[in-house]
Amino acid sequence: MAIDHASPLALKSGGAATGGAGRDEEAGNQRWPPWLKPLLATSFFVQCRAHADAHKSECNMYCLDCINGALCSLCLAHHRDHHAIQIRRSSYHDVIRVSEIQRVLDITGVQTYIINSARVVFLNERPQPRPGKGVTNTCEVCERSLLDSFRFCSLGSQIVGTSGGHRPRKKHGGVGGGGKKKRAAVKDARSDSEHSCTSTSGGSSDRSSVVQSFSPSTPPATSSSYRAGNKRRKGIPHRSPFGSLIVEY
């Protein structure tokens, strides 16, 4: 799976209401089509009840006009004139191609990915408790690592993040006051460790003097001990006495 480095798609931007919290919430409900939330709550890639005995009975289709749950390929015979979309799967998560969803929905600010040479978006949130090192931008809802030009990791995060009562989470890896506090804490920890090392070294010197009075120290290695430790060289081999005899016939 590859991350799409293209800029966020700016399509069919809906008008945002300005006013109180009630107006923002009402405008948020009117902004999204009626089929979007049921689509995100639907379970796909299950066996179709109506065509359980068929060879292709996996439910990976959804009708935006009927909004009656997941459908299999055989169920589409009853939805010929309707707008149906296909759901795909990547790493046990449901995705949809950008070419299909961008016709009916504004996905501005949602991270897109390249999977099997097709650009897709994820349907639901994918929480990431600990962002990786060096991450400067995360999803405003579930803190999934993102590129700097995007705000959300999925369509579900986009719905939650654009609602009136949602407050974006603080970004990780800030360089402001948090970084200064961390540096000060590291300096304090280093000074404490150095102080503890000096105190323990002083105490150990006193203890070593006491221990040396009871047990003698190990004598230094000498040349004789070094030679004794080496292997003994073999002497000059002697020839067999029969080698000098000449046999005469």
TrEMBL record:
Residues 1-29, 162-249 are annotated as: Disordered. Residues 196-225 have a biased composition (Low complexity). Residues 185-195 have a biased composition (Basic and acidic residues). Residues 166-184 have a biased composition (Basic residues). Transmembrane segments: none annotated. Pfam families: PLATZ (PF04640). It comes from the Eukaryota. This is B box-type domain-containing protein. It comes from Aegilops tauschii subsp. strangulata (Goatgrass).
